[in-house]
Amino acid sequence: MKQTRTVDVSRSPTLMDSLQTLMSILNSNAAVIASYPFYSNPKVSQHIELLEVNFRQIAALTPLNDLLRGCSSFELVPCGEGETGTMFVQLNGKPVAVFKPITNEDDSNDEGNDQTLFLPTGLEASDAPVREVAAYILDTDGFLNVPATSLARITHPTIGTRVGAIQVFIANEGAAWDMGPSSFPVDDVHKLAILDLMIYNCDRHGGNILVSKSINGQVKLIPIDQGFSLVDHPASDIWFEWLNWKQSRQPLSDELRNFVDSIDVNQNAALLRQLQIKGECIRVAKASTTLLKMGVAAGLSMYDIGQMVIGRRTKKTMEPSDFERIYKHLQESCGSNELLFMSSLEEQLDVELIKRLDSTAAVPLQQSTQKDSTFKSSNGTVGLSSSPALTIKRSSSKFL
Q1: Is residue 6 part of a domain?
Q2: How many other C-beta atoms are found inside a 10 Å radius of the C-beta of residue 360?
Q3: Distance (Å, whole) CA 241 – CA 178
């Protein structure tokens, strides 16, 4: 398919203004990787174009490609629960994708709109579509159940031409907060936690987790609405719905432990740079992912790791979390020196993990028949000796 390198928004000055941030990531490398013109009415233009950001979109959007190809028309139907302009892309009355236009997400800043309560400091509504794509790209091989997501430009009589994130629709039984969590698979709960810590998700409430069921009744948790993540500094009031579920306190399976061990902090950072995510936001993601890797290597549950990230509410104020306190201190002392920041972060997390292990005797370290056993951290290995102390053997590798 021939690729075009022109992104034409000249017909809509308002759209052009709101897309400045988003279009900067496409720049001269902008390419339409798939185009779906619809000709049901020659006088009305209907068009969906998937915009290339990362190679992983091309292969993974096959389901959407198969659904859209050959169809004569589509409908855009507002999502009843959304307050940010989210729409279903429907074919023959059935949803096949979810579209989140960048322009309508700005409406969430209107006074009195509850969505403003969830917009993290340092993020604009226009940042959300790129972060939806980022969460999908970081989910290697779809292991964490993030639906296939791409940037898209849609032309339709009801909205004109708008750019935003398009995501494959997943049939579901409803949101997690509409049902009890007792049937939720332990591994899926842990996958939610892993994703949220990788991207430092500030909006993981029960409405942003879909519950899907297979034909044989097997439950699967689907994380959606990752737009309010990858913030530029830790937040005291962050909360994760999965902390309320008993599954988060259970040990990780060997498969999930191996997955976390395989996460490459620097490779993830490089992928985020491709999306032109700000350096401050990438640093927060690197730091929270490092905490995830070290915590899992030390044998902590996802609940215990999550507790290190959320703040503590008192009668008068919200106290910063251990993670936020460490991060802010190192931000001031290390400045822009990334190598110093990350090596100092591991030292400080080492201390906090020892405290956490001492206070969570019910969550023992992985047992070993050897006197000494080791687990990899993000930048070295965590050594577990016969004593309760936790030490980190650091390498000379450089952080990006």
Answers
A1: no
A2: 16
A3: 13
Dihedral over alpha carbons 325, 328, 331, 333 (to 10 degrees): -70
* Rounded distance between C-alpha atoms, residue 72 and residue 296, angstroms: 50
Per the CB < 8 A criterion, the answer to whether 298 and 383 are in contact is no
3-state SS assignment for residue 299: coil
pTM of the model: 0.79
More confident residue, 292 or 89: 292
In this prediction, residues 227-243 reach a mean pLDDT of 93
Q: What is the mean pLDDT of residues 30-42?
A: 47
Task: Give the CB-side neighbour count of residue 270, counting CA atoms within 13 A.
Answer: 7
How far apart are alpha carbons 256 and 242 in whole angstroms?
16
Average pLDDT over all residues of the chain: 76
Considering the domain boundaries, does residue 399 fall inside one?
Answer: no
**CB-based contact 287:338 (threshold 8 Å):** no
Number of domains into which the chain is organized: 1
Residue 62 lies in a domain: yes
Which residue has better confidence, 87 or 59? 87
Average pLDDT of the residues in 70-80: 79
Which tokens go with 59? 């292969």
* Boundaries of domain holding 390: 13-394
Strand partners, 118: none
d(CA 192, CA 241): 10
What mean pLDDT comes out for the span 173-180?
93
Contact at 8 Å (CB) between 276 and 309? no
As a whole number, mean pLDDT of residues 281-298 equals 97
Q: Is the pLDDT at 203 greater than 70, yes or no?
A: yes
- In degrees, rounded to 5, the angle at the alpha carbon of residue 271 between the alpha carbons of residues 267 and 274 is 140
- For β-strands 94-101 and 87-91, DSSP reports them as antiparallel
User: Which helix H or strand E contains 293, and what residues bound it?
Assistant: helix 279-297
